[in-house]
Specification:
This protein is mainly alpha-helical. It is 70% helix and 1% strand. It has a domain of 195 residues. The chain has a two-stranded antiparallel sheet with strand order 1-2. It is globular, with a radius of gyration of 29 Å.
Length: 425
């Protein structure tokens, strides 16, 4: 007996079964694709920490070549590019060569991942996986940096100063974006309709803590680093920092700006930290700075401070690198399931600039300046770099506060002028 295709079988028809199979197959494919994208997204996010570990390892390698490479790595002294005594591969020269190797590695990663947008691209696979090949690439980059002539290394050292300055600027942009995020989260606009009780109270609490910490830090710096009137540089730096904190607070509270106290309080705390860091970078001086006992190989407090400073470098680079949305000219509002979670080229660019930055910190921004063991970023050059960075940070923040007011006033003035012209006509 021949059955009709539409003949009922149980509660379903044969046509219904076929239709269900056709609908079910795409659904399975969709589920598999979503699972694959989720796995690749996790691999991409995990890759950030592996790159951060590589960067941290490079910092340790640079420190090793600066402080102990001359005593341990005797074989490098016979390489022609290292000079007669091998000095060009140790101390400041060793730091610059390791930094160059790190810069080459992340520059190659920048070029090879440029334009990656989707998780199914080959560039995503290269960024998130293939770690054996990338490890070999890192080793080759370090080896290349130790066979390059001295002249090129000196040129790289000059360029690294510019790259380190770019990194500080990127870090400042990331900081300003963080302040904007804090304001939007904890100092919401009353017209937004959000619950203002908890968020407003928490924002006020953070603002109060930030200002108390800022002014307490200023008083402590006067006590510790300006004990005599002869400490002119320290007195000027601390006083100007206090003035900047007050100016930022007044501008934030101005009726035309009305930005609240939270972002200005956190920014004030940040520039106070930069001022303290600048004074700490000054060479040891009996009059204006309490001299610290430093054994030849470093005592335990010196070693702990060094390790904390090293971790701070890595964390600053990592936090700036993962904040890729702050450096995009076009903000992508819609995030599709197959989009990469962050911009790979920006991430690697930040780390390549970070390679130049840590080189400058290890050699105190001076190419031929001898550095003390277990020390980072000590010297007058380092001090003035941090002071200028503080002033630049405060200036950009103030401009960000007042620029909308100026543009709005100019627009109103232009509109009034056009109305007057039309009325005369």
């Amino acid at each position: 007996m021949t059955g009709n295709p539409s003949e009922p079988v149980g509660n379903f028809t044969i046509d219904d079964d076929v239709r269900n199979e056709e609908v079910g197959k795409p659904q399975v494919l969709v589920d598999k694709r979503e699972t694959a994208y989720a796995v690749r997204r996790k691999q991409s996010l995990r890759a950030r920490y592996i790159f951060g570990f590589i960067f941290f390892t490079t910092n340790l390698l640079a420190w090793f070549f600066r402080d102990y490479g001359y005593k341990i790595l005797h074989g490098l002294r016979h390489i022609a590019v290292c000079g007669e005594k091998g000095d060009e591969c140790f101390h400041a020269g060793g730091v610059l060569r390791v930094s160059l190797g790190c810069f080459i590695f992340f520059s190659v990663m920048f070029a090879s991942t440029f334009g990656a947008r989707k998780l199914h691209e080959v560039r995503d696979c290269w960024h998130s996986r293939c770690w054996i090949l990338k490890f070999l690439l890192f080793l080759v980059s370090i080896v290349i940096s130790f066979i390059i002539p001295k002249t090129f290394i000196q040129l790289y050292g000059e360029v690294a100063r510019i790259g380190a300055g770019i990194f500080l600027l990127l870090q400042l942009i990331s900081m300003l974006q963080f302040l904007a995020w804090c304001n939007s989260q904890w100092m919401p606009d009353p017209q937004s309709g959000r619950c203002l009780i908890f968020s407003g109270f928490f924002g006020l609490f953070l603002s109060t803590i930030s200002y108390i910490a800022s002014f307490s830090g200023i008083v402590l710096m006067y006590i510790m680093y300006a004990p005599h009137l002869s400490c002119i540089i320290n007195i000027f730096s601390i006083t100007w920092t206090a003035i900047l904190v007050i100016i930022m607070m007044i501008v934030s509270l101005h009726s035309k700006v009305n930005n609240g106290l939270l972002s200005s309080g956190i920014m004030g705390l940040y520039i106070v930290f930069l001022c303290w860091s600048a004074i700490e970078s000054e060479p040891q001086n009996e009059k204006c700075k309490t001299p610290k006992k430093m054994a030849e190989n470093g005592d335990w407090t010196t070693i702990v401070c060094f390790l904390i400073a090293l971790c701070a470098i890595v964390m600053a680079t990592f936090s700036t690198g993962i904040d890729t949305r702050s450096f995009q000219f076009v903000k992508d509002e819609a995030q599709l399931e197959d989009d990469i979670p962050y911009r790979y080229e920006i991430f690697h660019f930040v780390f390549s600039m970070g390679a130049m930055y840590f080189a400058m910190l290890f050699i105190s921004w001076e190419l031929d300046h001898p550095t003390r063991k277990w020390s980072i970023d000590v010297g007058w050059a380092s001090t003035w770099v941090k002071i200028i960075n503080e002033w630049l940070a405060a200036s950009i923040y103030l401009w960000k506060l007042i620029s909308p007011v100026i543009m709005r006033d100019n627009a109103i003035h232009h509109e009034e002028s056009m109305q007057n012209v039309h009325s005369l006509v």
